[in-house]
């Protein structure tokens, strides 16, 4: 199960990201837990200085903006970034197969 | 590189081209609209049977022409900044500022504050993160003053409603205050007035290196569009009110009404304007109707700019946020120096203009 954390200290944008992530998870049926981290010290532990930020399995995958639903789905289902990790490709099946180099 | 990779590489190129041509098409449409606003306004009046000869007709013409004009300018500027924001992150700015000495550092920080995406809710992590990565306190403050104050919304609206000279003046004044105030605070060596837990955190230094976030063209453009939706959606009503107020004022409030209170010859007008602005809080768009009203009736430009900046830069919400990391004395020093800087700069610009 993926551990998803949303880092943000409670402003509107951070709540928007949380809602978007929850919507994507339930729509796509992804097996994941969502936690909102509002404590500043915990946020800083990820070396993040622009909130809202999205953390998947302890890796920061997005910061300072709200990704589109499509992007969020990609970020939640892709394998960890390897030698050919890149944004923008819609072919998540190809990525899930592992590194293609 | 095998054939499937070559194929997806090409597919990506095609997609990027599609997005870029979309932007170009939008730009052409924008230019067409922008160029024909006066014609459109004149036509609307004709259709409604209202003449431009009287005050009401003139005010209506002005309104129909100005509102779309400002909205179009705002859309263009916000879209461009949204794309620029994908190139410049707070982390990258931090890496650029780490270890810079006073002077150069303050100038860079103030300039970077204009283009770096900044959300006031991330002010605290950003502040601490900067310090931890070796950005000096004064330089950090220069950034913190410039970022919320000189933003693309303020500049786009000032440009659209009052012309490029006013927008440039606002930027110049804002940069001057951010640089000077940051340098003064740095020289005062007030590190011990950071909250205890912040001082402790500073011992844990952090690498300033920013990751290289490669982003495809279509995502960058999408960010630009999202930025437009977010900002124009929030702000369009203020523009309508602001321009409407300007149109109305032309006819119905006596000329030079404000000159007696905020005119150039009144030496105390700048300090008073800044002090009045301190307890007031608004974003750039909200304060614009007031700015429109003041300027329209004879207030001096330097004074009004100082007032607008005071409203935006010094605010209760900001002080509350800063209180988490700064002891009261440092907050007072910060507010005092920024206010003094605004007064100085407003005064100088009144003299020079």
Compute the number of helices of chain B: 17
Alpha carbon gyration radius of chain B? 23 Å
Sketch the topology of chain B as an H/E string, one letter per element: HHHHHHHHHHHHHHHHH
Q: Can you tell me the overall shape of chain A? A: globular
Assembly state:
heterodimer
What would you call the shape of chain B?
flat
Q: Identify the most extensive interface between protein chains.
A: A-B, 29 and 36 residues
Order of helices and strands of chain A: EHEHEEHH
Q: What amount of the residues of chain A lies in strands?
A: 15-25%
- Classification by helices and strands of chain A: alpha+beta
Derived from helix and strand composition plus strand pairing, the structural class of chain B reads mainly alpha
Can you tell me about this structure?
- The complex is a heterodimer of chains A (101) and B (353).
- By secondary structure, chain A is an alpha+beta fold.
- Chain A has a single domain, classed as Glutaredoxin (3-Layer(aba) Sandwich).
- Chain A contains 4 helices and 4 strands, in the order βαβαββαα.
- A 4-stranded mixed beta sheet of chain A has the order 2-1-3-4.
- Chain A starts with a strand and ends in a 5-residue tail after the last helix.
- The C terminus of chain A is likely disordered.
- Chain B is built from 17 helices and no strands.
- In chain B, α5 runs parallel beside α7 and α13 runs parallel beside α15.
- At the A-B interface, α2 of A face α1, α4, α6 and α11 of B.
What order do the helices and strands come in, and which of them pair?
The complex is a heterodimer of chains A (101) and B (353).
Chain A: E1 2-7, H1 12-28, E2 32-37, H2 40-44, E3 53-56, E4 59-63, H3 69-77, H4 92-96
Parallel strand pairs in A: 1-2
Antiparallel strand pairs in A: 1-3, 3-4
Chain B: H1 3-35, H2 37-48, H3 55-85, H4 90-97, H5 104-115, H6 123-132, H7 137-149, H8 152-162, H9 164-187, H10 196-202, H11 217-252, H12 259-262, H13 269-277, H14 284-296, H15 301-313, H16 316-322, H17 328-352
């Amino acid at each position: 199960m993926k551990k998803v954390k949303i880092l943000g200290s409670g402003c509107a944008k951070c709540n928007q990201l949380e809602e978007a992530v929850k919507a994507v998870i339930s729509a796509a049926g992804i097996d994941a837990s969502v936690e909102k981290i509002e404590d500043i010290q915990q946020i800083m532990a990820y070396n993040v200085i622009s909130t809202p930020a999205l953390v998947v399995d302890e890796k920061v995958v997005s910061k300072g903006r709200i990704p589109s639903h499509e992007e969020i789905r990609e970020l939640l289902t892709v394998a960890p970034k390897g030698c050919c990790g890149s944004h923008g490709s819609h072919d998540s099946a190809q990525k899930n197969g592992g590194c293609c180099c | 590189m095998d054939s499937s990779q070559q194929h997806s590489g090409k597919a990506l190129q095609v997609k990027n081209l599609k997005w870029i041509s979309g932007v170009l098409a939008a730009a052409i449409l924008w230019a067409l609209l922008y160029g024909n606003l006066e014609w459109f306004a004149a036509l609307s009046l004709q259709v409604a049977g209202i003449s431009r000869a009287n005050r009401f007709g003139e005010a209506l013409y002005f309104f129909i022409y100005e509102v779309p004009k400002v909205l179009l300018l705002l859309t263009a500027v916000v879209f461009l900044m949204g794309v620029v924001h994908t190139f410049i992150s707070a982390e990258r700015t931090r890496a650029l500022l780490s270890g810079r000495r006073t002077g150069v550092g303050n100038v860079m920080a103030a300039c970077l504050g204009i283009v770096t995406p900044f959300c006031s809710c991330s002010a605290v992590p950003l502040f601490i993160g900067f310090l931890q990565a070796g950005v000096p306190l004064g330089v950090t403050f220069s950034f913190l003053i410039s970022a919320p104050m000189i933003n693309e919304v303020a500049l786009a609206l000032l440009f659209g409603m009052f012309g490029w000279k006013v927008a440039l003046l606002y930027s110049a004044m804002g940069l001057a205050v951010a640089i000077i105030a940051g340098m003064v605070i740095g020289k005062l060596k007030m590190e011990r007035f950071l909250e205890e837990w912040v001082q402790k955190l500073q011992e844990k230094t952090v690498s300033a290196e920013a990751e290289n976030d490669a982003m495809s063209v279509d995502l960058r453009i999408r960010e630009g569009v999202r930025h437009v939706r977010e900002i124009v959606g929030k702000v369009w009503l203020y523009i309508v009110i602001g321009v409407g107020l300007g149109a109305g004022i032309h006819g119905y409030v006596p000329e030079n009404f404000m000159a007696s209170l905020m005119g150039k010859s009144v030496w105390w007008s700048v300090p008073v304007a800044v002090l009045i602005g301190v307890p007031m809080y608004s974003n750039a768009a909200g304060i614009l109707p007031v700015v429109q009203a003041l300027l329209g009736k004879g207030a001096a430009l330097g004074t009004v700019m100082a007032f607008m900046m005071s409203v935006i830069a010094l605010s209760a919400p900001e002080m509350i946020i800063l209180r988490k990391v700064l002891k009261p004395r440092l907050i007072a020093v910060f507010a005092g120096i920024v206010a003094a800087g605004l007064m100085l700069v407003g005064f100088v610009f009144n003299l020079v203009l």
